[in-house]
Amino acid sequence: MSIAEDRETPAVPAVRTEVEVAIVGAGLAGTVLALSLARAGRKVALVDPHRIHHDEFRAEKTRAEQMGLFEKLGLGPVFRSLVTPMTDLHVFRFGHLFERKQAWEYAFSYTPLVNGLRSALPPQVPLTVGKVAEVFTGPDRQRLVLTDGSVIEARLLVVATGYSEAVRRAIGVERIEESKAHSLTMGFDFAISPQEFGLQSLTFYGRRVADRIAFLTIFRIGERVRANMFVYRTVADPWVRAFRENPQKMLLELMPEIAERCGNFAVASEVEVRQVSLTTTQGHRRDGVVFIGDAFATTCPAQGDGIHRVLTDVDCLTTHIPAWFATPGMAADKICAFYDDPVKIAADERAMRASIYARRITTETGLEWRLRRLRNNTARHLMIFARRFREAGKPSDARPGVTGVAFDHSDEAGQELPAGPPLGT
């Protein structure tokens, strides 16, 4: 199977390498898998066109659940060294402070994160810089031919090429669009310093259906104050163009109640955007090759499930590989054990379900969805009222920011709210 792409100048002399696992793509999924397999003593080849990962904007925050998976894979210390942790989270709804909670979240820029993980690769797993020209897969051995003539042979091939289609097409799999241009992630810096910002994280949920805003979240990455906003629009939408031209003006109109906390929304960078479609893969159950991360499926990053899917794929795959290698061959019946793993299925279904629900509860105007929003928002208004009532009777120096039970960000990400709020402390 041949791949017709622009070819780069060979980075290394043509060689022939034999390994147990060949990984194509050294983004987050491929690099984490290579690190995990190296820790298990596997012989691995990691192939990517670029020694240094290119600038790439993606959602820039994750949760304690994902940190738990990094720890399980033995990569917790590496990950912690590359992120900014935060625990003081402030959530705004309806123009008011709805919740203040203590929970671990971690902020990062995707490119430095990937490059930092690459730098942790052990000497026995060097990054092979090159493009794949041909791919041959089968029930026993897999073969990659790079554009410089180098050959890599392996028992198992793992495709972790993200959105790139070249290797996937050469193998013969098809990406199915479940929801085209499903959501848009926007990222930008605020001019305010972290010291002035003070709070570690703010999240503001959109007020009006017509705005098509899931939420804006503001947080620190090192010495920057960063914002990610998730909207259900396309890059070509006039609203998006207007926002990119004058984000400060539009933010002041959308959420004036938190302007003072963010330096009056003075923006210190261009507005980066990333369009995301919901996709799945067809024709992937085949001999010798596994697709992981965004090379297998893509979901909306607003719910934070993208990294969760990647790490779950790596965790499941590293669990199955020892049994696969214990017997000859690498036929599709072995490979299918990965795709049929209940843990993987649950993670993929959760991410897709949350992506679809979050958009519909935010944007749909049919009676069913209007009633759902009414129920959810009535519960939240009652919770705000209950909190204020409780705090009214407390001395001012004894009042916490917010008390009582409150919902986390998953409210809009596939979780139905209870019919009424718990009003007790």
From TrEMBL:
Q: Which PANTHER family match?
A: 3-(3-HYDROXY-PHENYL)PROPIONATE/3-HYDROXYCINNAMIC ACID HYDROXYLASE, FAD-DEPENDENT MONOOXYGENASE
Alphabetized InterPro entries for the sequence: FAD-bd (IPR002938), FAD/NAD-bd_sf (IPR036188), PheA/TfdB_FAD_monoxygenase (IPR050631)
Q: Which UniProt keywords apply?
A: Oxidoreductase
* Species whose genome carries this gene: Mesorhizobium argentiipisi
SUPFAM superfamilies in the record: FAD/NAD(P)-binding domain
Locate the region Disordered.
395-425
Instruction: Please name the Gene3D superfamilies in this protein's record.
Output: FAD/NAD(P)-binding domain
Residue ranges spanning the membrane: these are: none
Q: Identify this protein by name.
A: NAD(P)/FAD-dependent oxidoreductase
Q: Does the keyword Oxidoreductase apply?
A: yes
Q: Which residues form the FAD-binding domain?
A: 18-82
